[in-house]
């Protein structure tokens, strides 16, 4: 082993990677390289250019989008993996794919989609019912658990496995290692809902007494359909590198965007980071010296110092966690019955002392700023209005979306063994869209609750795939508002 590549013995082996259709002899790429390329050339990846990171995409030409964030994660992760001797292709594939399931308007969009799909946003009886096999809220039963939940890392897996078509086939057929890394780049579940007070739901209807019967958000739709991708046999150190790089990139661009948006002054940030990183005063430009009037020079130098500091700490930490003294190879680690505990120990606040305090500071000054909150409020309102428009009249959905929804409903009823299933033997691609829309109109007025749940999931998929600009345009078209 090269002493300069301390984790080369833990490198993922592309020859052992598993997917449905491995590369054939005519393909010059290994499976991880193919994963990377399929993600990079997918529509979901391209749409990241129009999705919010913190501030609205397009609000400022120099503020981050979800795509620039993804590229920065990839660059940081490749740097770390290169120094450690890990597989660069797998690292890049995971990094490029980790956010393809993100909703428009960042985490606000994700939150609203999750509220609707968990029955927290109740709309005209659409996503709750008075029957069995569901969660009871104040005497009213909401969406069945099997249909519940939205979270962007799970949605990224859904996009890679089911929603994307590649060469006429369903899914990108990525390797299990890549999908595992995409799924595990962030937590698999949510924490406790922040809108519960003394057992009552305080979301939206704050003046009404409504008991919360769903204090922990369910993600059963994903775990039921994509739970197999949680298999720890497909863990790689590369996946931990990407997860940490995601956090590093977030801290980095929170700082840069905060300066550019004038939410943090150079002087304040300099003092804060001096204390955090313990750098000498000569390493960060003094305001009165060369860079006193050049914000961009200040940002460039500060960014380099900050990222290098985090990257250095990460390399040291991972070397200590996975060095040869602990494991001979990745197979030995995967067979470790405590692998889950080992994975949970790879957290950025453990890698970099003081990160929690820095994160809290950035959240208070940037994510909780007036500028960010106004944008978040606007995004929250807009996505809720889109949801309500499609729920009220699903005929407003595009032809292809309706075709997918109706096929999903047919397949669901067949899987349950129900009789008298419409279009049971038909190829949905051959059915005229007018006929499908006519059948939708019948289900819309007297359809089963399972149909409503599938419609809700379809709307989640449709909205989550939108860019910020597309969501705004849809809102304007649906409501006739063009200002």
Describe this structure in words.
The relative contact order is 0.13. 53% of the residues lie in helices and 3% in strands. It has 483 residues and is mainly alpha-helical. The model is unreliable at 129-134 and 287-292 (pLDDT under 50). The longest helix is centred in the middle third of the chain and has 28 residues, at 295-322. The chain contains 20 helices and seven strands. The chain has helices spanning 31-40, 43-47, 66-84, 88-97, 106-117, 152-163, 176-183, 220-226, 237-260, 266-277, 295-322, 330-334, 339-344, 348-351, 355-367, 370-392, 399-415, 433-446, 449-464, 468-479, and strands at 128-129, 136-137, 140-142, 165-166, 169-170, 196-197, 200-201.
TL;DR of this structure?
The protein has helices spanning 31-40, 43-47, 66-84, 88-97, 106-117, 152-163, 176-183, 220-226, 237-260, 266-277, 295-322, 330-334, 339-344, 348-351, 355-367, 370-392, 399-415, 433-446, 449-464, 468-479, and strands spanning 128-129, 136-137, 140-142, 165-166, 169-170, 196-197, 200-201. It has 483 residues and is mainly alpha-helical.
Strand/helix succession: HHHHHEEEHEEHEEHHHHHHHHHHHHH
- For the residues shown, what is the average pLDDT? 87
Judged by helices, strands and strand pairing, the structural class is mainly alpha
CATH topology descriptor of the largest domain: Hypothetical protein af1432
Name its key features.
483 residues, mainly alpha, Hypothetical protein af1432, 2 domains, three-stranded antiparallel sheet, two-stranded antiparallel sheet, 20 helices, 7 strands, 53% helix
Topology of helices and strands:
Blueprint: H1 31-40, H2 43-47, H3 66-84, H4 88-97, H5 106-117, E1 128-129, E2 136-137, E3 140-142, H6 152-163, E4 165-166, E5 169-170, H7 176-183, E6 196-197, E7 200-201, H8 220-226, H9 237-260, H10 266-277, H11 295-322, H12 330-334, H13 339-344, H14 348-351, H15 355-367, H16 370-392, H17 399-415, H18 433-446, H19 449-464, H20 468-479
Antiparallel strand pairs: 1-3, 2-3, 4-5, 6-7
Helix pairs in contact: 1-4, 3-4, 3-9, 3-11, 4-7, 4-9, 5-16, 5-19, 7-9, 9-11, 9-15, 10-11, 16-19, 16-20, 17-18, 17-19
